[in-house]
Predict the 3D structure of the following.
Amino acid sequence: MEPRWIRQRDGYSCGPIAICNVAKWASIHPWDSWEKSRERLGGLCRTSRTHGTSNASFESALRSVGRGKLKIVRRARWKLDELAEWIEERGCIVIDFVVPLAHNMAKAVNNRDAHYVTVVDIMGPKGSEWFKVINIDSSETVSWVSREQFNWLFMRRRKGDRIWKVKLS
């Protein structure tokens, strides 16, 4: 059964929301309710209204929630085919990327805004895949993104971008 994915309802909680969606993908229930999970993950991630969530705090919280249940690998750079293969082999990925101004996201700050998304599925033939991305847009919870769009949004080497590959242990 498909999980009921979560999207953020403010301009700063995408880090905790990405971890909630990884937990849903992995069928991990860290707390009694998803509302409590969001609140507690906001604390674990040290998320603030002005600065969002740092990569270090995000990774610490992700590893805490997945302890003993998830294999997590982080790098700044992956090849798109590596990520597609990872997802095809029953993995998911979390991307923290700098949002291009042309994209329909929350207001950009100082001509850029970082945002965490979770990628949980892939479909289509190699070379023309579509990626299922959770919480990419403030108006939609789930978006299917073409390989071309995925490459433009997430694979352009921008300072600050990070990608975490996640699999069940």
In short: The radius of gyration is 15 Å. The chain is about 30% helix and 25% strand. Helices lie at 14-25, 34-44, 55-66, 80-88, 147-154.
